[in-house]
């Protein structure tokens, strides 16, 4: 049993008061997505996580694969104040929730790959201190859930007609996410096999698994200029090698510091959306 800070307990109670329905199935997991090959200062993100032994939120790291508004008065701060009934308003970043998704479709690529090619698959016991909303908190959602009152959110998501990158139930893990205690596995893209990223991943102390990977042919990239914009198609084409674009190629560009990170994020959206068979079934 994890002893939670009162701020986390208040936040969960606030969400539970708005939730209804029954629990999710026993096989459903929460996934925390990220890009494993990015740098924090001069160090690989996975090395930082390995040294810490915990997964930290944007309020602590200052990095994100979504919006960068996790600071007092920023959009993320205001959303959390509203969603969690002000429970975290005066609390430090270390106490704030970690964002992920409920992988209710059981995809090998995880619940919300728009936020990264890799993910931590959390152990079942973490569900007890996780809250949920649908849709994403950026859209000021009105529908919330906790572990034992979650089925309506899943039903809404299953019935929705959203872009595959928006097809997720947002999850908020309250309390520390400890790698050795709370993580079933780190799941990586096979483009990182035998790389420095895999070497860093081996230091985490949790099992490593591999999904089927994201590989985008440049012909498919050219076919979808309106998805994120022709300028990002052009950027993606400049990063591709041998007619293909992968998560590792985008990561290599990000580590040079020569590219706008928000532009690379949109190139990643192309790879995540059109570079996997799981969105084509």
From TrEMBL:
Pfam families: DUF3626. This is DUF3626 domain-containing protein. It comes from Phytoactinopolyspora mesophila.
